[in-house]
Amino acid sequence: MLLELDCVSSGYGRSPVLHDVSLTVGAGEIVALIGANGAGKSTLLNTVMGLVATSLGDIRFDGRVITRMPTPAIVRSGIAQVPERRQLFGTMSVEENLLMGGYASGDVSALEEQLVRFPIMRERRHQLARTLSGGEQQMVALARAAMSRPRLMLLDEPSLGLAPMIVARIMREIAALREAGGTVLIVEQNAHAALAIADRGYVLENGRIALEGPAEKLLVNPAVQEAYLGGHGGHYAIEARIRAKKLELLGR
Amino acid sequence: MDTTVFLQLLLPGFTTGCIYALVALGFVLCANVSGVVNFAQGEFVMLGGMAAAWLIGLGVPFAVAILAATALGAVAGAAQEVLTLAPVRRQPHFIQITTTVGFAVVLRGVTLIVAGKDALSVPGFSGDGVFFLFGAILPVPSLWVWSATVLLLVGTFGFLRYTSTGRAVRACAINLQAARLMGVNAERLRVIVFAVSGATGALAGVVITPIVLASWDAGLSYSTKGFIGAIIGGFRSPSAAVGAGLFIGLLEALSAGYVSSGWKDFIVYGVLMAWLLLQGGVFLRGRVDATVGGP
Amino acid sequence: MSHKSAIATVAFLVAVLLYPLCFPDSYHLGVGISAGAMAVSTVGVVLLLGLAHQLAIGQAAFSMIGGYANAILCVRYGWDPFVAMVAGALLAMLLAYAIAPPLLKLRGFVLAMATLALHLMLIVVAVQVDFTGGPMGVTGIPKFAVFGLPLSDDRSFFWFIWLLVFVAVWVGLRIDHSAIGRALRAIAASEQAAGSVGIDITRHKVQMFVIGGGMASISGSLLVHYLRATDPTVFGFGYSINLITGTIIGGLTSIWGGALGAAIIIFLRELLRELELPLWESVIMGALTVLVLIAFPRGIAGFVSRIYDRVVGGDAPQRVVVTEPGAVALPTVSDPPTLVLDGVSRSFGSLRAVSGVGFTVPAGSITALIGPNGAGKTTLFGLISGHLRLDAGVVRFDGLEIQTLQPRDVARLGIGRTFQNLQLFDNMTVLQNVMCGHHRFGGAGAEQTARDALAFVGLQGAENHDPASLPFGHQRLVEIARALALRPRMLMMDEPASGLNDAETERLSELIVRVAALGVTVLLVEHDMRLVMGLADHVVVMDHGEKIAEGAPEPVRSDPGVIAAYLGQEIPARAA
Question: Which CATH architecture has domain B3-264?
Answer without folding.
Answer: Orthogonal Bundle (1.10)
